Structures are given as structure tokens and as C-alpha cells.
């Protein structure tokens, strides 16, 4: 019996060893894909000839083994171009887990998808309108759209593991590695360099700006374009015990109520937003901290003021103890119409099946009413214009779980604002543009102001811009045009 058990044990060891060995061996690594096409167009009133290169770049570990294939689409001006004067901007979206499709097909690319500018119509089924983007910035800079590992066509290869890429710091390291390698391969070390990020892409941008300073190859940036910034998640996390969030979200609730004609009528949106800021900074923040130490008369006064700004019923506000969660605001604002408004963009609304629910049931109307159009447009554009033919689907929302937020201890809010402050203070020429939408109910514009005002960021090099749109303000055509003008001025300013 003992000999049988010993034999069985040996066989199990052999089997286990074989499994471990198989797992340790790298998978075959295919040749990196690359697709190059030549184009011309008129952008910013200038005729531009340009090359588009969609390609994979293999990122390697410390042993020189490829672990990730990072996909990018680079737009570079053709002809006799001086790399010392031609800026290059690296563009990515957020998530984490979002591909660069949104900024690519929504704003920066030479062709863009056109969803309903007034946020009234669903994108429905194909076909969808794709138009030449006359406001594309290719006349003043090259563009590199980057998809982090696990998004778009970017994927793990060889011995690569998700834990190497899927985390705040790991992600920043991989983007940094990509940028350095791209700049080296394309002889762009002397070019002015910018990053344009949206949402978590701004979280990433701040982390990358600092990470670029290390690693044995210091690379300084000329500037950051932060679209719907998210540098400190405390101000964009609407939960019961987070007092700061009630303050930061109130002005966005006010402007959204203004849009739906529930509050602030007869005033400009800018004036009403400022009025809401003043109340939030003053009486409201004081009331939130006093809480139940306030008298009934004081509570009633605050409830009346909140009703004035949000358009919500005073009785509802009192039952909420003067604390309005965004999830409830989205359902309550148009409850009389049986509609729930969007998160990314409060202009949108959807017809939920349950009018008695306390939060939207169908999800974010500003997402499900545009995402099919974006996805179809990108796939059509890649195939027909850029002649890109890959052997796998383009993941607009990738698989990047579990994500390591890098807290390193007790739970805490994600924050990269201090990292940006350090990077800017080490590089006193780096400037930042912060673009915010008035109807953004996930990264509120007031939070951007509070974040930048309290983290030792050199404010004289920060430009704030505001748009009558949401998180993706470029879905509103007038905001699209203004954003393009503002970025152009930001880049060209001395």
C-alpha cells in the first residue's frame, strides 16, 4: 500500500511539474501588425498631406521578453517637416478599460461620428453619419491614439500577465514605456510633446507626466489637455458619507436643472453656475458639517435653497436630509415626465420601465444612446479608410480586471493631483488645459476647480474652459467647435 501511495505521489509531482512548465513557457509571439496609408485633407483651413499608421508595439519585461502588444494609430504630417517645431500629442480615453475610440471618432480624428447634437434622438441602428472633421488639429500637430493593454486591439502576449498592466501605477509605466519607444523610433525627442486624456485618461495623464521623469530617460512634457478631469476621486464619488461630493456636484445639478428648465430660468448658465458655486462654498458646506446640530428652521432654509438650485421638491430634499445623491437626482429631476437623465451627460434622458425607482434602471442614457454609433463608425473607418484588418475584435470597453488602484493600505480615494503638481513644479514650462462640461454628472466641473485649487498646482499655468455639454462635451456640436478653438489657442500660445 505504501509503495502504491509513493508511486501515486511521484506521478502527481510529475504531472504538476509538467503543468507548471507548460504555464511557464511563453506562448508563440506573432509578428507585430502594421498598416500604413496616405491621405490628404483640409483642417483648420489648411491643406495637409498626412500618413496614418495603425500598428502594434511590443512592450517587454526586464528580461527582454515581449509581454504586451500595444495598439496605436498615429497621424503624422507628410513631407518636409521639422520635428523640433511640429508638436505631437498622445491621446487616450479612460475607464480604466476604455479604448481611445471616443476621442478618436468623437473629436480629434480627421473623420468623426455625428450623434444627435441636441441629445434628443437615440443612435438607433446603422447606418450612422460619419463626416470629415474640418476642425481636426492636424494642421498644427501630429496625433497618436493609444489603447492601453486589454483595450482596442492591445493585448497580453507571451508570458504577459494582467497584473503587469492593470493598475494605476502599472498602467502609467506601460504608457510611459510606449511613449518613449514611439518617440525614439520616430525621431521625435526634440518635438513639443502633449498628452490629451479624458476621464480616467486624465488620472493616467497626471501619473504619466510624473512617471516620465524617471526610468533612466527623463522626458518633459509641454502640456496636458485634461478633458473631464478626474485627478481626485473624492469629489466625483457621490456616496452617503462623502460630504465633499455634495458640494462638488451641486453646481452641476444646478446647470443640468437649468438645461431642463427646472431651475435658473431667466439667467445665463454661467451666472447660475456661479450662484450655485457661491452657495456651495458658503452656507451649504457649513450646513453639511453642522448636520443635525442645525435647527429645524435652518434645515428648512437650506432645503429651500437646494430646491431653488436643483428644481427638486422641497419635501424630497428634506427627506434626504439636504443631501442629494446624484443617482437619485438623475431619477428625480424628470420624474414627472417618467424619464431618467444621463450620467455622462445630463442632457440625455431615457424612459425607464419603473417610474417609482430611486435611480435609473436602464443605465446611463448618455452612454447607451451613442455607443453603437461610435463602435460602428470606428470599425467602418478602420476597414475602409485605414485598410486595417486584424484577426480579433476591437474592444471599445476592455477586460482589465482586477484593477490595482495602488492604495497601499487602508481604503482611500484615488488621487493623482499631487503627482501633477510635482511634475509641473519640476518643469516650470509645462501648462495644463482643463476642459469641463456643465452637464457632466460623473466628473463635475466644480470638482475640477476645487481639486486644482488645493493641491499646490501652479495655477498661473492652468487654463479652465467650460462647455454646454457633458463628459463628452464634443457630442454637442457648438461645444465641439469651441473645444477645438480652445485647444488650438492653448497649443499655439507662447
Provide an overview of this structure.
The chain has 494 residues and is of the alpha/beta class. It has two domains: 34-233 and 370-492, Rossmann fold (3-Layer(aba) Sandwich); 241-365, no CATH class. It is 37% helix and 17% strand. The chain contains 14 helices and 14 strands. It has helices at residues 2-24, 101-108, 168-185, 200-211, 243-259, 269-290, 296-310, 314-319, 326-332, 365-368, 371-384, 417-426, 445-453, 477-492, and strands at 34-43, 46-60, 66-77, 88-92, 111-113, 130-132, 142-147, 155-156, 193-198, 223-227, 340-341, 349-350, 431-437, 462-467. The strands form three sheets. Strands 1, 2, 3, 4, 7, 8, 9, 10, 13 and 14 form a ten-stranded mixed sheet that branches. Strands 5-6 form a two-stranded antiparallel ribbon. The protein has a two-stranded antiparallel sheet with strand order 11-12. The model is unreliable at 7-24 (pLDDT under 50).
Annotate the secondary structure layout:
Elements: H1 2-24, E1 34-43, E2 46-60, E3 66-77, E4 88-92, H2 101-108, E5 111-113, E6 130-132, E7 142-147, E8 155-156, H3 168-185, E9 193-198, H4 200-211, E10 223-227, H5 243-259, H6 269-290, H7 296-310, H8 314-319, H9 326-332, E11 340-341, E12 349-350, H10 365-368, H11 371-384, H12 417-426, E13 431-437, H13 445-453, E14 462-467, H14 477-492
Parallel strand pairs: 4-7, 4-9, 9-10, 10-13, 13-14
Antiparallel strand pairs: 1-2, 2-3, 3-7, 3-8, 5-6, 11-12
Helix pairs in contact: 2-11, 3-4, 4-12, 5-6, 5-13, 6-7
**How would a textbook summarize the main sheet?**
10 strands, mixed
Helix content: 25-40%
CATH class of the largest domain: Alpha Beta
Report the mean per-residue pLDDT as an integer: 93
Low-pLDDT segments: 7-24
Order of helices and strands: HEEEEHEEEEHEHEHHHHHEEHHHEHEH
Approximately what portion of the residues adopt beta-strand conformation? 15-25%
What's the total helix number? 14
Amino acid at each position: 500500500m505504501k509503495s502504491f501511495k509513493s508511486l501515486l505521489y511521484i506521478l502527481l509531482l510529475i504531472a504538476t511539474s509538467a503543468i507548471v512548465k507548460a504555464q511557464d513557457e511563453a506562448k508563440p509571439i506573432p509578428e507585430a501588425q502594421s498598416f500604413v496609408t496616405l491621405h490628404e485633407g483640409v483642417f483648420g483651413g489648411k491643406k495637409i498631406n498626412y500618413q496614418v499608421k495603425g500598428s502594434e508595439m511590443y512592450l517587454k519585461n526586464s528580461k527582454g521578453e515581449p509581454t504586451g502588444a500595444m495598439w496605436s494609430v498615429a497621424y503624422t504630417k507628410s513631407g518636409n517637416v521639422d520635428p523640433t517645431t511640429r508638436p505631437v500629442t498622445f491621446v487616450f480615453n479612460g475607464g480604466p478599460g476604455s479604448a481611445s475610440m471616443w476621442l478618436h471618432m468623437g473629436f480629434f480624428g480627421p473623420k468623426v461620428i455625428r450623434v444627435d447634437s441636441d441629445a434628443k434622438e437615440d443612435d438607433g441602428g446603422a447606418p450612422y453619419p460619419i463626416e470629415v472633421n474640418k476642425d481636426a488639429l492636424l494642421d498644427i500637430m501630429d496625433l497618436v491614439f493609444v489603447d492601453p493593454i486589454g483595450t482596442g486591439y492591445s493585448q497580453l502576449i507571451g508570458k504577459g500577465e494582467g497584473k503587469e498592466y492593470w493598475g494605476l501605477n502599472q498602467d502609467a509605466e506601460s504608457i510611459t514605456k510606449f511613449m518613449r519607444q514611439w518617440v525614439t523610433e520616430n525621431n521625435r525627442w526634440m518635438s513639443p510633446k502633449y498628452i490629451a486624456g479624458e476621464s480616467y485618461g486624465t488620472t493616467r495623464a497626471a501619473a504619466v507626466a510624473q512617471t516620465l521623469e524617471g526610468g533612466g530617460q527623463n522626458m518633459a512634457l509641454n502640456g496636458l489637455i485634461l478633458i473631464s478631469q478626474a485627478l481626485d476621486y473624492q469629489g466625483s464619488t457621490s456616496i452617503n458619507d462623502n460630504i465633499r461630493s455634495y458640494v462638488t456636484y451641486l453646481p452641476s445639478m444646478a446647470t443640468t436643472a437649468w438645461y431642463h428648465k427646472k431651475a435658473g430660468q431667466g439667467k445665463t448658465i454661467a451666472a447660475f453656475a456661479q450662484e450655485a458655486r457661491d452657495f456651495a462654498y458658503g452656507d451649504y458646506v457649513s450646513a453639511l458639517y453642522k448636520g443635525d446640530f442645525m435647527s429645524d428652521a435652518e434645515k428648512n432654509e437650506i432645503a429651500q435653497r437646494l430646491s431653488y438650485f436643483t428644481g427638486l421638491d422641497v419635501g424630497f430634499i428634506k427627506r434626504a436630509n439636504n443631501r442629494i445623491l446624484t443617482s437619485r437626482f438623475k431619477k428625480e429631476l424628470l420624474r414627472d415626465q417618467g424619464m431618467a437623465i444621463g450620467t455622462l451627460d445630463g442632457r440625455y434622458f431615457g424612459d425607464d420601465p419603473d417610474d417609482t425607482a430611486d435611480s435609473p434602471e436602464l443605465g446611463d442614457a448618455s452612454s447607451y444612446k451613442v455607443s453603437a454609433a461610435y463602435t460602428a463608425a470606428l470599425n467602418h473607418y478602420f476597414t475602409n479608410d485605414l485598410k486595417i484588418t486584424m484577426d480579433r475584435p476591437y474592444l471599445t470597453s476592455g477586460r482589465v480586471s482586477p484593477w490595482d488602484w495602488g492604495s497601499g493600505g487602508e481604503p482611500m480615494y484615488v488621487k493623482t493631483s499631487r503627482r501633477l503638481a510635482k511634475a509641473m513644479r519640476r518643469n516650470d514650462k509645462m501648462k495644463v488645459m482643463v476642459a469641463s462640461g456643465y452637464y457632466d454628472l460623473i466628473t463635475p466641473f466644480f470638482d475640477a476647480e476645487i481639486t486644482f485649487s488645493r493641491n499646490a498646482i501652479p495655477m498661473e499655468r492652468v487654463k479652465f474652459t467650460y462647455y454646454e455639454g457633458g463628459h463628452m462635451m464634443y457630442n454637442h456640436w457648438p461645444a465641439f467647435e469651441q473645444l477645438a478653438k480652445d485647444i488650438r489657442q492653448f497649443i499655439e500660445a507662447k
